[in-house]
């Protein structure tokens, strides 16, 4: 409830496996030696440590930011974001509905990422004064026309909500003090509707529909409750605000804190109250649920009003985001993460078994000296003269590799920073802004890697400029083309989900003026490198592929597409939370788990690509180049199929426009997964093939 004055305090709140680790190869007397360094277990330990630290944070603090101190009589700025719904991804501007307008400046500066996420922050029509209670304040009288009633009716049917913002906090119908009381009683990992479903309480509904009469009503009175606490001392560590429990390295002095306060909660009780009740004088804003409702129809005059109360709370500034950033289903995340670790370890044992027994045994038999029984060359050794023959469409392959490495590095850096809390989800659009800027800056890496692989594969430096151009245009061009199509469709629907012209033009300029030149810079430095020396010579005449598979199970394409199944099992559980956050307008904060899941998925794709590449070579098929890429990228197929199943069975999205938007974003994400995982898998498989053929004596 709002305004009950209740104050609650938050609760305090092995060696054998190592020998099966990452493999290294060395030439010693013509033999292959396996180096047991325990690299995989060390890598897994690092991922577990990062995930544990990132997922066990006790307070959600924004690095480099400080709480705003308020004193008696300070003006409080209330903002309103675009109205949204959990059953549709299409958002609309708040002032496109028949609500009271704002006097003065109605727009607020937004980040580039916020524009891309569909947010449109405006100044709200409410005016608060800190610690000054307002029992009842009339906003305006608004006539609801035919068009306005149609919009209100559609908003009620599709469960649209209004999301207000005060001091960077979203308004909520959840009692913040009650949340911490339940966390103290049941524990932080408890699965409670009030805790784990607290995201459903963000914002308030525009209105409702009477079940008996079928009439529509609008929530025309809002009772706000602003929670505040004594201002926290600003504890500094290298310029970052550490919040409660931080080490005070540089304490601000000469600043009185006795009369300064921080806002720690913003609650609302939405009510539908008829105009007659409001003007009768018997209206109680804190118990407004039992009055006659304000029904609307074309031509209805609606009186909007609000009330404001201030309550002292024991919630601290560093704790105030916990009701919104509470990790949903935390035990489920941990079970999924441990299952993923088990899968990755089993795959590692499989790869190690291939390397230690099969490959090593093959090489030992191959290198038997004189006097031994004459060997019969079979399997992957027999195609040593063709294994490094350039594949068809080598330029397209290297374009994919360069683009994939670029986006992989961008996502890895961004997720790592999010996992360690250096990019906060509290700052709207910060992650998207960082991803956009980082991706364009890493174009130099994509250009270098793509051109270097092109030179190594084709054994020529010719055409490196064309490869650089293709890398710069490929992935960014696909994304911008899809976004442009989305803008046209959403613009016709007058939705804020579309990106305005200026941010879209700015994105285009960053692409053309920053990304493209940096790609050429990376390609230029790669063009100065000589092609890598292969361990075996390539025959002038291609070998005929004789052992063509007659079984579906041993067919190369079956092996390739089966390779993506286990990596998909690693990411399966987290995908539900990711899709929910993206398409149901929910907060997502399990970035520690997301970072660990992404890292393990990449390792699983790499391991499966190595296994599938070896299996293809064993059937004397030297066309492994593209197939090693497809083996890692095939996880995108299962990713896309899961996205479609989520859309059909779990999302609850309504309307063809919402489904079109979903499919567009799913296409972008599937393309990114395909390119990134395929590029990483190919790069490691390329090293694997060079190593095993470098360990045999071939003429």
Note down, in words, how this protein is organized.
This protein is α+β, with helices and mostly antiparallel strands and 699 residues long. It is 47% helix and 13% strand. The protein contains 20 helices and 21 strands. The strands form seven sheets. Strands 7-4-11-12 form a four-stranded antiparallel beta sheet, with no helix packed on it. Strands 6-5-10-13 form a four-stranded antiparallel beta sheet. α17 (591-618) packs across α20 (656-694). The longest helix is centred in the C-terminal third of the chain and has 39 residues, at 656-694. It is elongated and about 95 Å long. The N and C termini lie far apart (83 Å). The relative contact order is 0.13.
Largest sheet: 4 strands, antiparallel
What spatial form do the alpha-carbon principal axes imply? elongated
Overall pLDDT level: 77
- In spatial order, strands of the major sheet run 7-4-11-12
> What radius of gyration results from the CA coordinates?
30 Å
Extended strand count: 21
Unreliable stretches covering 5 or more consecutive residues: 1-41, 46-64, 191-199, 236-256, 371-376
Indicate the structural class: alpha+beta
| Count of alpha and pi helical runs | 20
**Distance N terminus to C terminus?**
83 Å
Beta percentage is 5-15%
Using brief descriptors, characterize the structure shown.
single chain, 699 residues, alpha+beta, four-stranded antiparallel β-sheet, 13% strand, elongated
Secondary structure elements and their pairing?
Blueprint: H1 15-19, E1 25-28, E2 31-34, H2 39-55, E3 75-76, E4 78-80, E5 83-85, E6 88-92, H3 112-116, E7 122-123, E8 128-129, E9 134-144, H4 146-157, E10 160-162, E11 164-166, E12 169-170, H5 176-186, H6 193-196, E13 204-205, E14 207-209, E15 216-218, E16 221-230, E17 236-237, E18 240-241, E19 261-271, H7 275-280, E20 295-296, E21 300-312, H8 322-325, H9 330-366, H10 394-419, H11 430-441, H12 443-458, H13 464-492, H14 501-527, H15 556-562, H16 565-583, H17 591-618, H18 625-633, H19 635-650, H20 656-694
Parallel strand pairs: 16-21
Antiparallel strand pairs: 1-2, 3-8, 4-7, 4-11, 5-6, 5-10, 9-21, 10-13, 11-12, 14-15, 15-20, 16-19, 17-18
Helix pairs in contact: 2-17, 9-16, 9-17, 10-11, 10-12, 10-13, 10-17, 10-20, 11-14, 12-13, 12-14, 13-14, 13-20, 15-18, 16-17, 16-19, 17-18, 17-20, 18-20, 19-20
